[in-house]
């Protein structure tokens, strides 16, 4: 057991079947927490739960769409009943969608014409339903669990919420306007909620991962033979440490931010874990 703070405490992790939060969930279990794993697909969550349980931990799989009020409220009631009141909420569910991205980095006149190249998707072609869905998943999907689980934490008088921002929260990356707006909203909301919930004894912070390869970003950053794509080269050229992150690289920061002893006076901040990407101008 690594630390007393986490022992027997309930940690709710959304996006727990994903690349980053599956590793975070396992780490919190190693530190003694009881885990509630949320995401839409049981197929992604169950292997994480199986690993936690095989290692002697506690994990409850609750298939939940974190943009659905009734589903999140139902999950919260089940968790409170089965494990106890949530002490740590990790809002990890999120991501982008290809249809909400442009294929071009800047305006090209061709996008105005009917006979433009088939694969061309400029800003004027973007599907607003897809844009809305990305904003809903990343921003509302952070606010809603914070509201539902935060209410229980406020009744208890303590708790810690951790949100997931991005490099594109600070300065927008090309091609991802919906995801950028959504993740900018996450930093702003983290600050807002930290102020609002301070009197309730709840701290709210965020981590902003740099570039970590997951199932979606692998197709964007890498070539099929495992090399770097043009975008991958560009990211690498602006990452002073010259590597992509691995999920375990987040653990020190995440566990520190959640820890009420070590980070007792820390709330409303977003910490970049990015190999220097944010500091670099690339020039
Ligand atoms: N990887 C990176 O480089 C990077 C960089 C910056 C920020 N981030 C952020 O860090 C977080 C974790 O990223 P990751 O790389 O681990 O992504 P990932 O592997 O795609 O995992 C994200 C998880 O979120 C779940 N999810 C998506 N929409 C959901 C919804 N409506 N309801 C419930 N669950 C939902 C997905 O599971 P289901 O499809 O089964 O629901 C998926 O397992 C995300 O917020 C991401 O935006 C990642």
SSE arrangement:
Blueprint: E1 10-14, H1 19-30, E2 34-39, H2 42-54, E3 58-63, H3 69-82, E4 86-91, H4 128-156, E5 159-164, H5 177-197, E6 202-209, H6 215-221, H7 230-237, H8 251-258, E7 270-273
Parallel strand pairs: 1-2, 1-4, 2-3, 4-5, 5-6, 6-7
Report on this model:
Helix content is 40%, strand content 14%. It has 283 residues and is of the alpha/beta class. It has one domain (4-98, 135-214, 246-279): Rossmann fold, CATH 3.40.50.720.
Question: How many helices?
Answer: 8
- If you average the pLDDT, what whole number results? 96
Query: How would a textbook summarize the main sheet?
Result: 7 strands, parallel
Order of helices and strands: EHEHEHEHEHEHHHE
Could you give the distance between the termini?
45 Å
Helix residue percentage: 25-40%
């Amino acid at each position: 057991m690594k630390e007393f703070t986490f022992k027997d405490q309930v940690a709710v992790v959304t996006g727990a079947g994903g690349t980053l939060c599956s590793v975070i969930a396992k780490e919190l279990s190693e530190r003694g927490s009881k885990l509630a794993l949320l995401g839409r697909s049981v197929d992604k969550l169950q292997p994480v739960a199986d690993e936690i349980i095989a290692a002697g931990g506690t994990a409850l799989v609750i298939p939940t769409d974190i943009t659905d009020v009734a589903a999140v409220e139902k999950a919260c009631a089940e968790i409170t009943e089965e494990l106890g009141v949530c002490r740590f909420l990790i809002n990890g569910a999120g991501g982008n969608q290809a249809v909400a991205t442009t294929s071009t980095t800047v305006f090209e006149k061709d996008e105005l014409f009917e006979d433009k190249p088939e694969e061309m998707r400029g800003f004027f072609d973007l599907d607003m339903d897809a844009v809305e869905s990305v904003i809903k998943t990343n921003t509302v999907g952070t606010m809603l669990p914070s509201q539902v689980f935060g209410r229980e934490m406020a009744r208890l008088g303590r708790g810690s919420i951790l949100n997931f921002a991005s490099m594109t929260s600070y300065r927008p990356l090309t091609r991802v306007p919906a995801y950028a707006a959504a993740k900018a909203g996450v930093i702003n909301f983290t600050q807002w909620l930290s102020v609002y919930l301070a009197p309730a004894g709840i701290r709210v912070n965020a981590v902003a991962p740099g570039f970590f390869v997951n199932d979606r970003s692998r197709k964007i950053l890498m070539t099929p033979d495992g090399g770097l794509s043009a975008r991958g080269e560009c990211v690498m050229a602006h990452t002073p440490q010259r590597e992509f992150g691995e999920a375990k690289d987040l653990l020190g920061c995440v566990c520190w931010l959640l820890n009420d002893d070590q980070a007792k006076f820390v709330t409303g901040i977003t910490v970049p874990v990015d190999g220097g990407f944010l500091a670099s101008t690339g020039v």
